[in-house]
Every structure is written in structure tokens, then in C-alpha cells.
Design a protein that fits this description.
Layout: H1 2-8, E1 13-16, E2 35-38, E3 45-54, H2 58-75, E4 78-84, H3 89-95, H4 101-109, E5 112-117, H5 134-143, E6 147-153, H6 166-169, E7 173-179, E8 191-194, E9 200-203, H7 210-226, E10 230-235, H8 241-253, E11 261-266, H9 267-276, E12 283-286, H10 288-301, E13 309-313, E14 319-323, H11 340-353, H12 357-372, E15 375-376, E16 386-387, H13 390-403
Bound molecules: nicotinamide-adenine-dinucleotide.
Nicotinamide-adenine-dinucleotide binds near residues 120, 306 and 379.
Length: about 400
């Protein structure tokens, strides 16, 4: 990889990488794909970032977030080598598969991956293996990113955007740690079969091995330790065997983290508590399916899906950073998308993916600054604020990144 980079370095320039991709012809792999920004300066840290814009609003929000990431990084002495690759519907249109091998290779060889969103009406009737969303399953599975971190924070500027009463929503600041590569979404046996009565049956299996529980629990304990020191493990141990083992393993690990206060909650109660008293939660750890549902529920407390970033991390290799929203085909191409979830995903990329906390803080502070100045996209707009589009919101955040005093971490 280093040799490859050296071959392609050209100071302060953008260059197209020549014929490196087997299944994509030069014509298919036209701009914006295959763009590498090459610029190595002495004394600067350099990272390879795979950009996967995807579909719908994906390219709009990625283009904005890329500029913010580049600016915040450069102010902290970081340089990025971006490689933009097709994924999802965009890849289906180019080469007939949602996750081309070349895209996966570029992602796997990068230091971190920033993804926009995947999917759209155009591909809705495709067979399952040719649906754009399959790219996400392949990426998560093959990168082995088993830990999905989803913060849900109600910013004071946006408390009125929450569907909950102000006194319930204000001050909410939680992190949901979801297991991402196991459980019922991947468990075997699975599928639609015919039973002994000749009737169709749908089968999905909730299954967790001890090591899968231990590794996600460790991520959660470590996360809680860096936050307010409270961890709530959510399961269904009154019914599900996989949850009984989950609770046993999480409880056993607690002795290694005496500074973290561990509690357990059944998932049905957790769903209620999230809207009754969300402030009680600091860090939540849960399995794949419960995390999928609870994190979407938590996202609504914050007001808009357009505000929420996520990080997916494995034991080694690059992390995957993406907004939690989809491709929003209803507003795609209209400059209406809120780019803040993707910009905040870029901040998570810096913080959790590269360990560059100062640059991450610059972005987080700039987002707050732009909101303080009253800039709002349509999804978070309220009277008295200034309605802006995706690009203008990006420009305002960029200005704040440039003008804000360096943050202390
Ligand atoms: N991670 C992903 O890539 C991902 C996640 C969820 C859904 N999807 C796919 O996205 C497509 C659309 O799905 P959906 O409509 O259920 O969910 P969605 O998140 O795309 O949109 C839901 C609603 O939220 C709005 N919205 C979403 N993001 C926004 C943003 N940044 N700014 C302003 N408004 C925003 C949309 O306009 C829409 O009204 C489907 O093909 C689905 O499979 C992809």
C-alpha cells in the first residue's frame, strides 16, 4: 500500500489512478470515482479515507462532510488521501452488483470509511441479493465491524424539534452500543422453508457465542468509562436463551470495570423508559435487533434523523462511519438534506477511527456554532431561524471550523 501511495503522490494535485480495477471499465469508472487527492507534506500525518457516497442524498452530504473533514484535519496537521468508490445502487448501475470487489478492497485498505447512504425506489423491486442495501450487510460482515456506536444527544438549540416535552428531552445525552454482526440477522438456520404439513415457515435464529457477547460488552464498558460511568445492558433474559447467556457474560465482565455502574433492563421496559425518562441513560449495550429498534427510537428524541451520526468498529482494520439516515429519495437532488449527521460522522471518524480527538472536537464545536448562529435545514427548522440548504449549511460549518479558536479536548 505504501509503495502504491508513493507511486501516486503528486503534490497539491488531484490525479486519477490508472487501471487498477478489474471489473470496472475505464468508462464505467468515470469521475467522481477513482479520484485521489494526493498531497504529502513533510511533518504532517497522513490518512487514507475511503469515501462511499452511495445513493439519493448520499453524494450531497458526503461532498459537504468531506470538505469539513479536510479543513478540520488540516488545522490539526492532518492530510487525507480520499478515494471515492461506488456502492449500493450507484454500483448496481455501474457494474451490476451492490458491493464491487474494488470498492471493498479500497475500503478494507483504508484507515477509515465514510459512507453516505444506500438505496432508492429505482432498485426496490430487485431480487434480495441485488438490492443496494445488501452492500451494507457485506461491508459490516466482511470488515467484521461488530460494534455500532450511536450517540443520541439533544442539543439545547434543537430541544424544540423533539417530539417529547421539553423537560423530558432537554439534557438527553446517551450512547447506544449495538452488536452489529451477530444475532438474529445472521443466525442459522434461516430462510423460508416448507414444514412437515406442507406449509411455508419463516425461520430466523437468535444466536450469540460467549466471545461475541464479551467483545461487545468490553466496548460498552470502555465507552461508559469515558462518559458518565453508567452502563445499562438491555436484553430479554426472561424469555430468550441467547439473552440469558448475554446477561451472564455481561455480569461476569463487570468485575473488570469497578468504576462502571452496571444495570440490566428488559427490552420492552427499555422501549418505554426511552420515552418516559431518557435522561436516566448514559450508555446502553444491546444485541443486533434490539439495538436496531431502540437506536431509531432514541433518534426521534433528538428531533431529526438528519442529526445523528454512527460509528461501526471492529477489533482491527478500518472503522465504518455513516449517518443513521437512509438515502431520503423524497428530497434527493434538491439541496434539502441536512448534512450534519454526516459531518458529525466525520467527527466520529476522527475520534474513534483515527484517534484524532482535537480535529474531531473542532468539527463538533463548529456544528454547535452554526446552530447557535441560527442556521437550520428544513428538517430542524423552526420560525425565527434561517432556513438553508445542504450546501449552505456545509459552508457555514466550514466557516465555523475556520474561525473557531482551537478546542481543548
Ligand atoms: N444506512 C443506510 O444507507 C440506510 C438506512 C436506512 C434506510 N436506507 C434506505 O434508504 C431508502 C429510504 O428509506 P427511508 O425513507 O425509510 O428512510 P430515510 O432515512 O431515507 O428517510 C426517512 C425520512 O427522513 C428524511 N430524512 C432522512 N435523512 C435526512 C436528512 N439528512 N435531512 C433531512 N431529511 C432527512 C427523509 O426525507 C424521509 O422523509 C430506502 O431505500 C432504505 O432501504 C438506507
Amino acid at each position: 500500500m505504501a509503495a502504491f501511495l508513493q507511486m501516486n503522490i503528486r503534490l497539491n494535485s488531484i490525479k486519477i489512478v490508472p487501471g487498477r480495477y478489474s471489473s470496472l471499465t475505464d468508462h464505467q469508472f468515470r469521475a467522481p470515482y477513482r479520484i485521489r487527492c494526493a498531497a504529502a507534506s513533510p511533518g504532517k500525518k497522513r490518512y487514507n479515507i475511503a469515501l462511499l457516497p452511495g445513493d439519493g442524498i448520499g453524494p450531497e452530504v458526503i461532498s459537504v462532510a468531506k470538505n469539513v473533514l479536510q479543513k478540520a484535519g488540516s488545522l490539526e496537521g492532518l492530510e487525507f488521501d480520499f478515494q471515492e468508490m461506488p456502492v449500493g445502487g450507484a454500483a448496481l448501475d455501474l457494474v451490476g452488483v451492490p458491493m464491487p470487489e474494488e470498492t471493498f478492497t479500497a475500503a478494507k485498505q483504508s484507515d477509515a470509511i465514510l459512507l453516505g447512504a444506500i438505496g432508492g425506489y429505482k432498485w426496490d423491486k430487485n431480487e434480495k441479493h441485488l438490492r443496494p442495501e445488501m452492500a451494507l450487510f457485506y461491508l459490516r460482515r466482511d470488515l467484521k465491524v461488530f460494534a455500532n456506536l450511536r450517540p443520541a444527544t439533544v442539543l439545547p438549540q434543537l430541544v424544540d424539534a423533539s417530539t417529547l416535552k421539553k423537560e423530558v428531552a432537554e439534557g438527553v445525552d446517551m450512547m447506544i452500543v449495538r452488536e452489529l454482526t451477530g444475532g438474529i440477522y445472521f443466525g442459522e438456520p434461516r430462510g423460508i422453508k416448507i414444514n412437515e404439513n406442507g406449509e411455508e415457515v419463516g425461520i430466523s435464529t437468535e444466536i450469540y457465542a460467549a466471545h461475541e457477547i464479551d467483545r461487545i460488552a468490553r466496548v460498552a464498558f470502555e465507552t461508559a468509562r469515558k462518559r458518565r460511568g453508567k452502563l445499562c445492558s438491555v436484553d430479554k433474559a426472561n424469555v430468550l436463551d441467547a439473552s440469558i447467556l448475554w446477561r451472564k457474560r455481561v455480569t461476569a465482565l463487570a468485575s473488570e470495570y469497578p468504576d462502571v455502574e452496571l444495570s440490566h433492563m428488559y427490552v420492552d421496559n427499555a422501549a418505554m423508559q426511552l420515552i418516559r425518562d431518557p435522561k436516566q441513560f448514559d450508555t446502553i449495550v444491546t444485541n443486533n435487533i434490539f439495538g436496531d429498534i431502540l437506536s431509531d427510537e432514541a433518534s426521534m428524541i433528538t428531533g431529526s434523523i438528519g442529526m445523528l451520526p454512527s460509528a461501526s468498529l471492529g477489533e482491527s482494520g478500518p472503522g465504518l462511519f455513516e449517518p443513521i439516515h437512509g438515502s431520503a429519495p423524497d428530497i434527493a437532488g434538491q439541496d434539502k438534506a441536512n448534512p450534519l449527521a454526516t459531518i458529525l460522522s466525520a467527527a466520529m471518524l476522527l475520534k474513534y477511527g483515527l484517534g484524532e480527538e482535537k480535529a474531531a472536537k473542532r468539527i463538533e464545536d463548529a456544528v454547535v456554532d452554526a446552530l447557535n448562529k441560527g442556521f437550520r435545514t428544513g428538517d430542524i427548522y423552526s420560525p425565527g431561524n434561517k432556513l438553508v440548504g445542504c450546501k449552505e449549511m456545509g459552508e457555514e460549518v466550514l466557516k465555523s471550523v475556520e474561525s473557531k479558536v482551537p478546542a481543548t479536548v
